[in-house]
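Example record

One chain of 229 residues, shown exactly as stored in the release files.
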Amino acid sequence: MGESNTAVKEQAARRETSAATLGALKIHQTWMWRKSGLVLSFMIALATAVLSLTAIPPEAISIEGLDKAYHFAGFLLIIFPLIVTDSRRWYWAVPLVILYGGAIELIQPTVGRSAEWLDFGANVTGVLAGAALAEILHDRIHRSVFDESPLSAQEQAAREAEQMEAVRRELMDELRVVLREELGGVPHAGPERPVGPSPAEDAAAQGAGPEGQAPVRLSVVGKSGGRSG
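Predicted structure tokens for this chain:
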């Protein structure tokens, strides 16, 4: 019994260790995925700031409104990695990046650039478009990165049935081990002799007197003085 309990406990401990290892690996991968989004967005934000605060001659922009497209694309690229790696960042990342774009527009006049409301509008539009696009593609990109293909209802039911069958087989194996240990420890004794005298001894004891003599038949004298046998 003790050995069977030890085996069951060891199997349970191995299952718990395996589950804990897989869980830790999953947490580490998720953490790295989220950190990569932060690092990438930070690098793009620095590059955008450098380009936005660098003095550009007017003749360098040959197409009217092309700088607005640059603003839009730059801030779309800033917000996209933040949201696509963790959609919960929407609530603080979107306002923060919009404020970042406004701060750049306020600093631009000090470096020979002009601050324009249209540029700020392009920044805000790029932020909102990038956040919406990242939110739409979040689940698909997450599955492709972590190799998580969506399962249909039938596949999900089949997987659950396989898991239940595996659990049932494991429980049956453990039950067989316990029963084998229990049955192996029961001693196999012969038929026990009944306690007490045998029927022949009982009959002999009833036929004998207190000292082993035959019982004496006494006559009873009635009121009439007669003798009855």
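Notes: Confidence is low (pLDDT under 50) at residues 218-229.
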